[in-house]
């Protein structure tokens, strides 16, 4: 699984290449319009090369002569540039994206560092790699607090999930395991996917999966799920944990992640009490200490 940071760093090679092509193009264009400038630049280059030899020879007299020659050429050059109104930085590499200086991350209007809009492609790709290929239309900006009524409650849950993601939750600092419990048809999956996408947008490694899919996940993915910054497991239910292979896979993931204090959110329509009572024993034990994200005490 490739993280957003890896994807952006891979694309930097491409960015560097196009920067250099752009620079070459700009130089060619300026020299074509002003051959006089090219002539002076060639002369400056010659003087510098000759000076370099004089430095090796330790010939102080010659070095000085070349220094004076370059100064004179530079004065001429400045004049030509001014007369022809040439950008003094025409021969320098320029950023493709001024917003992020080609780093791929830029501060948003709210001041937080996020994936820059010039890396939209990498971001979408990362969402796909992170288990969200089927949810391309789910976007946090479309999450409406007032949808289905109870805007306060919906906002509270959204903010609690974001706090867990950002490590800001003051609700229960002892745990990194959270149960997000809400009745069916309340937009849990939508919100969970959006929070997971937000994590990636902030440069974190994150993954969204349905619990039952752990059964078919490859070894590499399962290893990634133990180490990534943020994990959301949807459709969590006691029955899923009783399915032997899922129970032990899940238990293993939770064990490694809680030991490293890496957040996991279990999304479920069931109440925490019910889950503690009915889940696979190993998981039930962990759930007892888990934090609860719910509108009312469930
Ligand atoms: Zn950018």
Count of domains = 2
Q: Which residues form runs of ≥5 with pLDDT under 50?
A: none
Q: For the record, what is the CATH homologous superfamily label of the largest domain? A: P-loop containing nucleotide triphosphate hydrolases
- Span of the ends, CA to CA: 35 Å
Strand count, sense and closure of the main sheet?
A: 5 strands, parallel
What's the count of strands?
7
CATH fold-level name of the largest domain: Rossmann fold
In what range is the share of β-strand residues? 5-15%
**What class, by secondary structure content?**
alpha/beta
Binned, the helix content reads 55-70%
**Element order: H for helix, E for strand:** HHHEEHHEHEHEHHEHHE
What is the overall shape? elongated
Q: Can you describe what's shown?
A:
This protein is α/β, with parallel strands linked by helices. The chain has 2 domains: 13-83, no CATH class; 105-293, Rossmann fold. The protein is 55% helix and 10% strand. The chain is built from 11 helices and 7 strands. It has helices spanning 4-33, 35-57, 60-83, 120-132, 151-166, 188-201, 219-227, 238-242, 244-259, 272-278, 281-288, and strands at 105-107, 113-115, 177-181, 206-210, 230-234, 264-268, 291-293. The strands form 2 sheets. A 5-stranded parallel β-sheet has the order 4-5-6-3-7, with helices on both faces. Helix 4 (120-132) crosses helix 6 and helix 7 packs parallel to helix 9. The chain is elongated. The two termini are 35 Å apart. The model has no long low-confidence stretch (mean pLDDT 93). Bound molecules: zinc ion (ZN).
């Amino acid at each position: 699984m490739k993280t957003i940071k890896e994807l952006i760093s891979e694309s930097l090679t491409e960015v560097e290449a196009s920067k250099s092509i752009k620079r070459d193009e700009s130089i060619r264009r300026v020299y074509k319009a002003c051959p006089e400038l090219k002539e002076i630049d060639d002369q400056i280059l010659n003087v510098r090369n000759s000076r370099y030899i004089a430095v090796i020879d330790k010939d102080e007299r010659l070095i000085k002569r070349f220094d004076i020659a370059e100064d004179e050429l530079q004065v001429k050059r400045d004049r030509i540039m001014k007369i022809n109104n040439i950008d003094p930085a025409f021969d320098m590499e320029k950023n493709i994206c001024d917003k992020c200086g080609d780093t791929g991350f830029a501060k948003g209007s709210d001041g937080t560092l996020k994936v820059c809009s010039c890396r939209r492609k990498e971001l979408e790709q990362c969402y796909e790699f992170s288990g969200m290929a089927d949810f391309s239309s789910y976007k946090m900006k479309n999450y409406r607090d007032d949808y289905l009524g109870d805007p306060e409650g919906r906002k509270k849950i959204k903010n609690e999930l974001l706090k867990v993601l950002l490590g800001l939750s003051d609700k229960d600092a002892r745990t990194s395991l959270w149960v997000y419990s809400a009745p069916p048809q309340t937009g849990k999956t939508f919100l969970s996917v959006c929070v997971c996408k937000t994590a990636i947008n902030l440069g974190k490694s994150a993954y969204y999966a349905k619990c039952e899919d752990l059964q078919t996940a490859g070894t590499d993915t399962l290893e990634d799920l133990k180490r990534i910054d943020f994990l959301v497991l949807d459709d969590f239910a006691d029955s899923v944990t009783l399915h032997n292979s899922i129970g032990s896979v899940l238990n293993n993931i939770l064990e490694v992640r809680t030991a490293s204090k890496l957040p996991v959110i279990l999304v479920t329509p069931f109440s925490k009490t019910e889950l503690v009572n009915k889940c696979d024993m190993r998981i039930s034990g962990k759930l007892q200490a888990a934090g609860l994200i719910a509108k009312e005490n469930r």
